[in-house]
Amino acid sequence: MIRKKMMEGDSANISREELAKSIIPNARAMVPNEVREEMMLRVREVLEAPVAAPNDKEQNSDGGIV
């Protein structure tokens, strides 16, 4: 997909932003719905997980801080 876009235009003058803008919609469309749903579940799990307070330090088995 990227090679095709590079060959279509003047690849010497295309910026990364322009290249990304042209390929992202097609790349997103290629991701199967099953994969999207699985990723959304994983993101939701992370966002809903409790967050440790900044001062909470975990200790490993020898008493050192992780």
Automatic annotation (TrEMBL):
GO molecular function: transcription coactivator activity
Any single GO BP term: mRNA export from nucleus
Gene3D superfamilies: 1.10.246.140
GO cellular component: nuclear pore; SAGA complex
Signal peptide: none
Tree of life domain: Eukaryota
Pfam families found in the cross-reference section: EnY2
Protein name as annotated: Enhancer of yellow 2 transcription factor
Organism: Drosophila navojoa (Fruit fly)
